[in-house]
Amino acid sequence: MAETVFSLIPTHLLPALRSPRVLIAMGATTATAIGVVTYVLTRKKPSAEELERERRDLLARIGRITDGTIMDTMIAEVRSPALDLADDPQPIPHGPLTPEMIVYVYRIAGVTYECAQDVTMLADLVHGVRTDLPIQVRYAPQNPANSIIVAETWSGLRLDPTNFQQTEPPDETI
Length: 174
Description:
Blueprint: H1 2-8, H2 20-42, H3 48-62, E1 64-74, E2 101-108, E3 111-118, H4 123-126, E4 134-140, E5 143-148
Transmembrane segments: 22-41
Keywords: Membrane, Transmembrane, Transmembrane helix
């Protein structure tokens, strides 16, 4: 039986490649390499929103806190399609405005950082933002420019209490 296996191996190969063990190892290595390449090319890559959420979560868990100030809030205008044809379009009046971007500044070790955070995904957490009060900023100790002022589990904002609707606790009369 062994003679038939060795008779199938071409004799023009180098003597080191004539061994069945070497051929099996080369086949296993090739199969592993094909499997790794296939996985890398077909795996699901995280979206930009998922990456940003992970960054916010990491900073909310391990970030250091410092004081900061809101410099500006950028609010998108809400317009009616009927007003698009008018010469002087006006934003539709509505309740408290919710910013899409918050620009803030903070200092660490004598260095001033000016950053902006896109808060469109956190709209329910940033309505009623006040720019006249100080804020808290969470930043990465290894990279102080990597910072946030609001996340799903943490907020350094001081919100306007007049924009919240107080709900009365239910009467527990028996």
